[in-house]
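Sequence, please.
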């Protein structure tokens, strides 16, 4: 009975997030701080769940991991969020207005329909970007630092090279006509699913949830330390449905995660990772000339 209730925590959290946005006063919805508070509250809640319902002892949080995770959450909400809005969302919104692009059928749809359309459309793009990162070496160099994490925790989805973090944030949802509360509901619900998909929490949601949305079982297999080839599955960050549609879904779970002998990278190494081959070649050339 206790484990059944634990298994219901992810869908219950998503339901709570969506209920908040569905019934929140308009002044709260329009306030710039609300979406940040909701997102951070979900992260804090799931992080606390790790202390109570631990999944793997080897993923237990320590001070170094916590400090790194907090740095990336701040970086994600601040820098990546700003760049995505300034370089992608705002220009797309202007283009939408100039070209007269409209989706009136979506604007007239119920709240939950709008939320699901935004989630699945955004995740469709994320799926193909993520899949490309595992199949084209230049993109893999930006994404590899995320796979060098040696344990999964609630904030680990924020960790990675800045180039990858920006690329994976790209989307076309600014072209859609949706209510602000539905847009924020979709963003925070997707974020909550992704937080659980990276969390060290002993929750295995119901079959219906796992058919459409990513779980820690799906995503731990994507992070497996078995080999690089074994990570080329389950690309969905929060929506696993696209993996099922395009044949990249794999059943299973991995308690051991990481890449390249499971070497944990520092923040500096994560940021320099895409240019490390060039730096190493340069150092070798210098050593040869000396």
């Amino acid at each position: 009975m206790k484990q059944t209730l634990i298994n219901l925590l992810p869908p219950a959290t998503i339901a709570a997030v969506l209920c908040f946005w569905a019934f929140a006063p308009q002044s709260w919805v329009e306030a710039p701080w609300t979406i940040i508070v909701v997102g951070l509250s979900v992260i804090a809640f799931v992080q606390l769940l790790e202390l109570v319902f631990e999944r793997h002892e080897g993923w237990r949080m320590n001070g170094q991991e916590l400090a790194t995770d907090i740095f990336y959450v701040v970086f994600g909400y601040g820098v990546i969020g700003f760049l995505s809005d300034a370089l992608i969302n705002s220009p797309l919104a202007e283009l939408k207005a100039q070209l007269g692009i409209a989706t009136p059928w979506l604007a007239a749809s119920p709240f939950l329909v709008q939320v699901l359309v935004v989630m699945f459309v955004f995740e469709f793009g994320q799926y193909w970007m993520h899949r490309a990162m595992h199949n084209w070496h230049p993109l893999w160099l930006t994404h590899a630092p995320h796979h060098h994490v040696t344990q999964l925790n609630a904030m680990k989805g924020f960790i990675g090279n800045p180039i990858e973090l920006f690329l994976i944030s790209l989307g076309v949802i600014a072209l859609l006509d949706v209510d602000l509360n539905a847009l924020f509901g979709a963003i925070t619900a997707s974020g909550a699913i992704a937080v659980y998909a990276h969390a060290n929490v002993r929750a295995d949601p119901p079959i219906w949830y796992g058919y459409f949305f990513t779980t820690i079982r799906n995503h731990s297999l994507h992070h497996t330390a078995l080999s690089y080839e074994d990570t080329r599955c389950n690309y969905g960050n929060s929506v696993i449905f696209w993996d099922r549609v395009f044949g990249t879904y794999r059943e299973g779970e991995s308690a051991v995660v990481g890449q390249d002998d499971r070497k944990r990278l520092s923040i500096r190494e994560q940021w320099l990772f895409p240019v490390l081959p060039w730096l190493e070649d340069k150092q070798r050339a210098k050593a040869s000339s000396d």
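The chain has one domain: 2-289.
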